[in-house]
Design brief:
heterodimer, A: mainly alpha, 2 strands, globular, B: alpha/beta, 6-stranded mixed sheet, 18 helices, 24 strands, 27% strand
């Protein structure tokens, strides 16, 4: 204890300690969330006003949550891919292909729900492993590997469907229609929030024990409040309409898994290290090949999951669906503070980025604006978000 | 004190003058009324520890920092630069420690980048290559103007950067730690070129940690400490320059620089036989040929070699990090092991502190904490989740015991000085609890106080019965710290001395023997 005391004392003479500590905490991406959430709330207020109260109606929020689900699930995975410095450009094509696989399994082979789910996830995993093989073993840049998939797998979908839209087995619609009862939904959400808050408390206590000066507010208060506002919003939505839709539960599960593995496991720490300095990570004994393979395999499972949600939502599997999804997902991750160079980013931020983007397009549809305007808005939001992020970091980018 | 320094030099022809420069960064007072006069055509060295204010002064002179109190005079005219371009327009050029050349450009193109000779609206290539060839000749550089910058050695790139300043009419040339990544021989060549600079009417400001260099290259030395000039003297007629500089810098005697503690040397821990490493570069086939090596517990083994001797290849190959093919056998405590990747090496208890700290050793944007535990994450893995209690406690322990100066362990590595960064890298390896430490240039770019801390750490490691290999081009360090010194040349071990048996001259001669034949 005496040894740790000298450290805190050394930090003490500088009076601006708390302030100086702030950029460090920010670079740890712990306080990044707050401005983003505030922006999201402002956007919601504005849309609420512009749509004459339609936007925040429980009905629309449930609808919005369905839209967000696909983007958010994939964005959570994309963060895991982007933190070690890779990128996935194949999303639109692979998710559409997974939807096609689900529809064919149900319709042509008359499989019931569970076998269809297993086959679709397995298909996604297979594509993920294909990417992992080329990126991690054959050392082809992920940009090229996934660009190749974007073209090839889109083509493959068109070939096996004869470019026709296939209808799925009605069994599968349960994925978008089912929901947890309001009561159960609230319990699940509360458990989600409590787990998060407890992990932050654990972090704070670990710091206290090590004699590291840190305020309870910054480590526990603010993050727990931010996530709390968010879960409370979802709770209100769940309680006032049809309960908690299954796609939202899936998003929560994926976000919890991805976020947890990034923040609290050695696996996540190593991903950050690979993106921060690949050479130094290698020399610290990190198995980059294994890490990359796991990340792409996980991403593959998400293709399958998103494909299932998609086919259930549309009640059809158009082989040409979801064009440009990959860029929306990358934009959402970047808006949420993920660096394209790797080494930096959080799942929570990226998911809020996804919600922000989907809110904009949903709100603008409600206002009957053509999709061209949505694309203009999202483009400008992306530009502005990255600019604001850069300025708040003092202009250093990716190094 | 600074006032009478200024007046004592006023009689000389001055190329540049700084008067009463004062600069604060928030609460830190970086420069406290610094006044120095730089004589025309001279080589003026500035010495001082990290944080003494050298680099702030240089940044102000070269236009990187535009906001300060005080005055700058160039050729008797008061100037205030608000950008690097502005300073360059008035003949002040900085050659930074870490060069940023464009590796894809050819030497000639780089020399005249942005100032290409033009004719009819096109680049006059004939003149470009001819002028480039002329400047390469002036600097006695054995490279074609058509060579790509990326293919040149660091030392050649530095000389090209200086030549680039020359083509733009440099009056005041600032060299920041120019020799930090050079070998002895390249340093010699660099000094010869610097000595010639005054013929072109150039005044040089030379900044270095290496004290012995200063007396060879400079006419005048200013020593800085805590933002002030604390000593200022002409080198002519000085008997023991390094001692005087060190005393001014830290108030400590140079004898204490290498606090060697002889540990009890025991059984061999690492034994290497027929160690051969294929070269990855052009030229020779083998970077290392048939080396036999034993390192014992408690022993600090020094390996000294000039660039291309294979000393660094040896260090990297022992850690499984060499790109070329490696053959030979390795035993740790009599057990035959195979080390193909750094992961294998770490599993077998080998640690490696690389020479290129920023490139290989640390993640600058990440915190002290996450850098420190990176190689030992498995030790903090409990039920699949990181044990933050244990992790933070160990990090704090090492921050305290190695005297890492930082505000908080959450601070990004980029905010630490070189010495403190190196301490964090050392702690990273201590946490993985290895048996064998391979240290490459352990004190490159590290200030005097941090050096002493690092040497004390090396002694401690040896006393604990571990084996240490120091691969360094810092000859006094190798001779001062090691129980046994091996000299490498052309991929082979050529000589061996025990502690205290060899002089710097002996080692230098044996290391350069074959090298000079070839050159």
């Amino acid at each position: 204890m005496t040894s740790t005391k000298t450290v805190t004392e050394r930090g003490a003479p500088a009076k601006g300690f708390q302030l100086r500590d702030l950029p460090a905490a920010m670079s740890q991406d712990r306080l990044r969330l707050l401005p983003l959430i505030i922006v999201l709330l402002i956007v919601w207020m504005v849309l609420q006003y512009l749509t004459g109260g339609l936007f925040l109606s429980a009905r629309n929020l449930t609808n919005l949550s369905g839209q967000v689900a696909i983007t958010a699930v994939l964005t959570a995975g994309a963060v895991l891919v982007m933190i070690p410095g890779y990128i996935d450009l194949s999303l639109g094509a692979t998710v559409a292909a997974a939807a096609v696989v689900a529809a064919i399994a149900g319709t042509n082979y008359e499989l019931s729900l569970w076998p269809t789910v297993v086959i679709t996830l397995a298909f996604g995993l297979l594509i993920g492993l294909w990417h992992a093989f080329w990126v991690a073993w054959m050392k082809v840049p992920s940009f090229i590997v996934t660009l190749g998939s974007l073209l090839a797998i889109r083509g493959l979908s068109l070939v096996i469907t004869n470019a026709e839209t296939i209808s799925p087995n009605p069994d599968i619609l349960v994925i978008s229609d089912a929901s947890l009862s309001p009561m159960l939904g609230i319990v699940v959400l509360f458990a989600f929030w409590l787990a998060f808050a407890l992990l932050q408390v654990r972090e704070w206590r670990a710091r206290q024990a090590a004699g590291i000066r840190s305020s309870f507010g910054a480590v526990v208060g603010l993050p727990a409040a931010s996530v709390g506002i968010f879960t409370l919003g979802v709770m209100i939505m769940a309680a006032s309409y049809r309960g908690l839709p299954l796609p939202v539960v899936l998003v929560l599960a994926v976000v919890a898994l991805a976020g947890w593995s990034l923040r609290f496991t050695a696996f996540g720490r190593r991903l950050y290290a690979i993106g921060g300095n690949r050479q130094a990570a290698l020399l610290a004994g990190i198995n980059i090949r294994m890490q990359a393979s796991l990340v792409f395999a996980f991403m593959g499972l998400l293709y399958g999951l998103a494909g299932l949600v998609l086919v259930a939502r549309l009640d059809s599997a158009p082989p040409g669906a979801m064009q440009g999804l990959e860029l929306n997902v990358i934009a959402a991750a970047v808006i949420g503070g993920t660096s394209l160079m790797g080494g930096r980013g959080t799942v929570a931020g990226a998911v809020i980025g996804a919600i922000l983007m989907e809110s904009l397009s949903n709100g603008m549809s409600l206002m009957n604006l053509p999709s061209a305007y949505q694309s203009i808005t999202v483009g400008l939001v992306l530009l502005f978000a990255v600019y604001a992020d850069l300025r708040s970091r003092g202009g250093r980018f990716g190094d | 004190m600074s006032a009478d320094i200024a007046s004592s030099c006023a009689a000389e022809l001055s190329a540049a003058k700084v008067v009463g420069i004062d600069k604060r960064f928030g609460g830190a007072h970086a420069l406290r009324g610094v006044s120095i006069t730089f004589e025309k055509g001279g080589v003026h060295a500035i010495a001082g520890e990290n944080g003494a204010g050298k680099s702030t002064l240089v940044k102000i002179l070269s236009g990187v920092i535009g906001d300060y109190a005080g005055a700058i005079e160039i050729d008797g005219v008061g100037r205030r630069f608000d950008s690097i371009r502005d300073a360059e327009r008035h003949g002040v050029f900085l050659v930074p420690q870490e060069l940023s050349v464009v590796p894809e450009l050819r030497v000639g193109e780089y020399l005249f980048l942005n100032r290409e000779p033009q004719r009819w609206g096109m680049v006059d290539t004939r003149k470009l290559w001819a002028d480039a060839a002329h400047w390469l000749d002036v600097f006695k550089l054995d490279a074609s103007p058509l060579e790509q910058m990326g293919n040149l050695s660091t030392h050649q790139q530095q000389l090209v950067s200086i030549a680039r300043a020359m083509t733009q009419g440099v009056k005041l040339l600032i060299l920041d730690e120019p020799t930090s990544s050079l070998t002895e021989r390249e340093t010699e060549l660099m000094f010869a070129r610097i000595a010639d600079l005054h013929r072109h009417g150039v005044t040089t400001i030379y900044i270095s940690h290496r004290l012995r260099e200063l007396e060879r290259v400079a006419n005048v030395v200013s020593v800085m400490r805590d933002g002030r000039v604390v000593d200022h003297f002409r080198l002519q007629g000085q008997s023991d320059t390094p001692r005087r500089i060190v005393q001014a810098m830290v108030g400590r005697d140079i004898i204490e620089m290498y606090p060697k503690v002889a540990a009890k040397v025991g059984e061999p821990i690492l034994s290497v036989r027929d160690w051969t490493v294929e070269s990855t570069g052009a030229g020779r086939v083998h970077a290392i040929k048939n080396i036999h090596l034993d390192v014992r517990s408690g022993e600090i083994l020094g390996v000294f070699g000039l660039l291309g001797s294979g000393a660094f290849d040896l260090a990297r190959s022992l850690f499984g990090a060499h790109a070329g093919r490696v053959s030979g056998s390795m035993q740790i405590r009599g057990q035959v092991i195979s080390v193909r990747t750094p992961r294998d090496a770490i599993r077998n208890g080998i640690a490696y502190v690389p020479a290129e700290r920023k490139r290989d050793g640390l993640i600058e944007a990440h915190s002290i904490e996450s850098n420190m535990t990176l190689a030992a994450l498995n030790r903090f893995n409990r039920y699949g989740i990181l044990n933050r209690y244990g992790e933070l406690q160990r990090v704090q322990q090492y921050v305290a015991s190695l005297k890492v100066k930082c505000g908080s362990v959450e601070q990004p590595m980029s905010q630490l000085s070189g010495g403190n960064q190196q301490k964090v890298v050392a702690a990273k390896w201590l946490l993985s609890e290895p048996e064998i430490f391979i240290l490459e240039e352990p004190t490159r770019g590290v200030d005097v106080n941090a050096r002493i801390d690092l040497y004390a750490l090396v002694n401690e490691i040896a006393t604990a019965g571990k084996a240490v290999i120091i691969v360094s081009t810092d000859l006094p360090e190798v001779l001062g710290m090691c129980d046994r010194v091996l000299v490498m040349c052309e991929g082979r071990l050529v000589r061996e001395w025990m502690h205290g048996q060899a002089s710097e001259e002996d080692v230098m001669i044996s290391a350069a023997e074959e090298y000079s034949e070839g050159a």
